[in-house]
Specification:
about 325 residues; mainly alpha; Farnesyl Diphosphate Synthase; two-stranded antiparallel ribbon; 15 helices; 2 strands; about 75% helix; globular
Length: about 325
């Protein structure tokens, strides 16, 4: 099985250096703020976003000082959106740790998110990185629009595949696309190459989100159906496909279960079984692989290199990961 730590090896030194620069970019003279940003840095995730930035830069001309700023900008703006998301969702946990709003309440969490956003803007303007700022700001705008589109459509519980893809393209894929485009831009790539890398990242992002959808229909560590998206009334690709494959009566019954009984374990099991029986998981897996193939087709245009090989492994990891 692919391990992220193995894929990261060719740029491990650069990632370590980036982490130090990222810590510095978050520093504040306000003790409370410094304490909170230190807590954020300590809970870092898999580092997939910086990896996309650095590998993209390497295959488009090479890593520069601008690449470190690109990775920091992506992380600052993305972390700001996560802090705000936890407030919006009233979520008290992220990646197994307490969220900022759980520990310091909503008012402070919102202000911390604003601070991180301003640090990203400051980092860009101070270094005249206007191209990077445009790429990442576009992604943040799309993420907000995607979230609002999802909220609007979830109320109706009748999302088409076209709307689903628009939501995940904005909510998830836009960020990975911005990582790849920003990496290319930081290496001095042409506009055509930057657009190519943006399309590459967008396809990976869509495949990544479909993989997340599929996790919801598996079992958790104690053998119970996960159904986290179902509990939150999120309409995912496997569910959309299964609903479109069944008759009107059954469709109405399942939608009612998702809308009104999504907090009952036995009802979650029933929804999951319905999706499996109606081919939802198989269909979603096939669609996921189509987007992976699209990403591979784009990267074929680049000459052979260690970073290109690593980037291909990172693409495979997005669809083969276990969590």
């Amino acid at each position: 099985m692919l391990k992220l730590s193995d894929i990261k090896k060719p740029i491990a030194k650069e990632i370590d250096a980036f982490e130090e620069k990222f810590k510095v970019s978050m520093q504040s003279s306000v003790p409370l703020l410094d304490r909170i940003t230190h807590y954020i840095v300590k809970r870092k995730g898999k580092q997939m976003r910086p990896m996309f930035v650095f590998f993209a830069a390497n295959i488009c001309g090479g890593i520069t000082e601008s690449t470190y700023r690109a990775a920091s900008l992506v992380e600052l703006l993305h972390t700001a959106t996560l802090v705000h998301d936890d407030v919006v969702d009233n979520s008290f946990e992220r990646r197994g740790f307490f969220s900022i709003n759980a520990l310091w309440k909503n008012k402070i969490a919102v202000l911390v998110g604003d601070y991180l956003l301003s640090k990203g803007l400051q980092l860009s303007v101070d270094n005249q990185e206007f191209r990077l700022l445009k790429i990442v700001s576009d992604a943040v705008q799309q993420m907000s629009e995607g979230e609002l589109l999802q909220i609007e459509k979830v109320r109706r519980m009748d999302i088409s595949e076209a709307v689903y893809y628009e939501v995940i393209r904005q909510k998830t894929a836009s960020l990975i696309a911005s990582c790849c485009a920003a990496g290319a831009a930081s290496a001095g790539a042409s506009e055509e190459t930057i657009k190519l890398m943006h399309a590459f990242g967008e396809n990976i992002g869509i495949a990544f989100q479909i993989k997340d959808d599929l996790f919801d229909f598996g079992l958790d560590d104690v053998g119970k159906p996960k159904g986290i998206d179902i509990k939150e009334k999120k309409v995912t690709l496997p569910l959309i496909y299964a609903l479109n494959k069944t008759d009107k009566t059954n469709k109405k019954r399942i939608i009612n279960l998702v809308k009104n009984h999504q907090d009952k374990p036995e009802k979650i099991s029933e929804i999951i079984e319905f999706v499996r029986e109606n081919g939802g998981l198989t269909y979603a897996e096939e669609e996921m692989m189509k987007y992976q193939v699209k990403a591979f087709d784009i990267i074929k245009h680049f000459p052979p290199s260690i970073s290109k090989d690593s980037l291909e492994l990172l693409v495979k990891y997005t669809t083969e990961r276990k969590k």
